[in-house]
Design a protein that fits this description.
Blueprint: E1 4-6, E2 15-16, H1 34-39, E3 44-46, E4 58-63, H2 67-79, E5 83-88, H3 93-99, H4 103-115, E6 118-121, H5 126-133, E7 138-140, E8 164-166, H6 178-192, E9 196-199, H7 203-211, E10 220-223, H8 229-236, E11 241-243, H9 253-260, E12 265-266, H10 271-276, H11 287-299, H12 301-318, H13 321-333
Parallel strand pairs: 1-3, 1-4, 4-5, 5-6, 6-7, 8-9, 8-11, 9-10, 11-12
Antiparallel strand pairs: 2-3
Helix pairs in contact: 2-4, 6-11, 11-12
Length: 336
C-alpha cells in the first residue's frame, strides 16, 4: 500500500518517498510527522488534491484551520473515487478548541466528517472529537519514527556530548511552559556547570528577555536562526539530553527527535514522550521532581544510556515504520 498524504496547509513542495525513510538530505523535508505516514508506505506528500496520481486511491487528508477549503478537498477526492481518512494538522487539545470555536466551523467539521470514510487520531484528544463529529471508524495511530534505519541514527560519541538542549522555543504559547522550563533549569545548570542551549527567534527582544533570566556567563548558549531539520538533529545530538515542560498534549515530535539522536528526553506530555520515555515524562511527576531527574541523568551516563536503550526497544515495537505501515494497511483495509 502506498499512502498519499494531502496537507493543504503545507508550504513545502510535494514529495514522494520511493526509498521510504531514505537518507537525511538538507534539500528535502525529513520523513517525520505526517510525512512519516507517507514515507513508511513508500507513498507521497501533496499540497493539492489535483496533484495526487489518479491510480492512487488511499488518501490521508490533514485538516487545517480553513475548513471551507478542506470541505472542497473532500468533495474533490470523493468525486475522484478516493478513500478518505481524516487527520488534524494541529492535533493538540488546545488547538482543536480554538479551531472549532464558532458554530459555522463546527458545522463544517461535521459535514466533512460525514463525507469521509474514517479518521486517524495521532493523539488521544482527537479520537473523541472525530467520533463526536460523526466519523464511524476512528483509529489511534501515533506518528512513525524511522528507528530501524541506520541512516537516521544521529548519535555521536558520548564523550563529545555536553549540556542540555531545551526542546521548546515559542515563549508566546503558554502551553509550552517555556519560561517555567528556563527558570527551573537555571539552578541545575549553575550547580552542574552544564550549558543550556536554547533558540531565540525574536531578535533583540528575545536577547533582552533571555538576559533577564540571570544565567551565569557562558552557560546559556543561544541559537538565533532557523535550522533545517537535519541541522537541528545534528545540533541536538551534541547534548547529553533534551528537556521540556510542554503541556500541549501534542504528538511528541521533540521526544522523537531526541531518540533519533540517541539521547533521553525529559518532560513533556506528548504521545511519543509517553510511549518511549514513560518514566521521564509521567504527567503525575511534579516539576521539581522532573528537574531532579535532569540532575540525576547529567551525573549518571549509564542511566542515560539505559533510558535510550529502553526507548529504542519501545519505539521498535510501537513506532517503527514497519509497525505503523501495518496499522495503516489494517485501517484502509476496512474500506476495501
Amino acid at each position: 500500500m502506498q499512502l498519499c498524504v494531502l496537507d493543504p496547509s503545507s508550504k513545502d513542495p510535494d514529495q514522494t518517498f520511493p526509498d521510504f525513510a531514505g537518507k537525511p538530505d538538507l534539500t528535502k523535508q525529513s520523513p517525520l510527522g505526517y510525512r512519516g505516514f507517507a514515507a513508511c508506505t513508500g507513498g507521497g506528500y501533496y499540497r493539492k488534491d489535483s496533484s495526487i496520481p489518479a491510480n492512487e486511491r488511499r488518501v490521508l487528508l490533514v485538516l487545517h484551520r480553513n475548513l471551507k477549503a478542506c470541505r472542497q478537498n473532500v468533495i474533490n477526492l470523493r468525486r475522484a473515487g478516493k478513500t478518505i481518512i481524516l487527520a488534524w494538522s494541529k492535533p493538540g487539545a488546545f488547538e482543536l478548541e480554538t479551531i472549532l470555536r464558532s458554530p459555522s466551523d463546527l458545522s463544517l467539521f461535521r459535514e466533512i466528517c460525514g463525507r469521509a470514510h474514517g479518521a486517524l487520531a495521532v493523539t488521544s484528544d482527537v479520537e473523541p472529537v472525530f467520533r463526536g463529529g460523526g466519523v464511524l471508524h476512528v483509529e489511534t495511530i501515533p506518528m512513525p519514527l524511522p528507528v530501524e534505519s541506520p541512516e537516521w541514527d544521529f548519535s555521536i560519541r558520548p564523550e563529545d556530548r555536553q549540556g542540555i538542549f531545551l526542546g521548546t522555543w515559542d515563549r508566546s504559547d503558554v502551553t509550552r511552559r517555556h519560561l517555567t522550563a528556563l527558570m527551573g533549569l537555571r539552578d541545575v545548570v549553575s550547580q552542574m556547570y552544564e550549558p543550556l542551549t536554547v533558540f531565540n527567534l525574536d531578535g533583540w527582544r528575545g536577547r533582552r528577555w533571555l538576559r533577564q533570566l540571570g544565567y551565569p556567563s557562558g552557560l546559556l548558549r543561544v541559537i538565533e536562526r532557523r535550522l533545517s531539520h537535519t541541522e537541528y538533529l545534528r545540533k541536538m545530538a551534541t547534548h547529553k539530553m533534551v528537556f521540556q515542560l510542554d503541556a500541549s498534549g501534542g504528538p511528541g515530535y521533540v521526544a522523537g527527535d531526541a531518540l533519533l539522536c540517541r539521547i533521553p528526553c525529559i518532560g513533556g506530555n506528548g504521545v511519543t514522550e509517553q510511549i518511549i520515555f514513560p518514566e521521564l515524562s509521567d504527567p503525575r511527576t511534579s516539576t521539581p521532581d522532573t528537574l531532579y531527574a535532569v540532575s540525576r541523568l547529567l551525573d549518571h551516563g549509564h542511566d542515560r544510556d539505559l533510558a535510550v536503550e529502553q526507548a529504542l526497544n519501545l519505539a521498535k515495537q510501537r513506532l517503527s515504520f514497519e509497525v505503523i505501515q501495518q496499522s495503516l494497511e489494517q485501517l484502509f483495509h476496512c474500506f476495501g
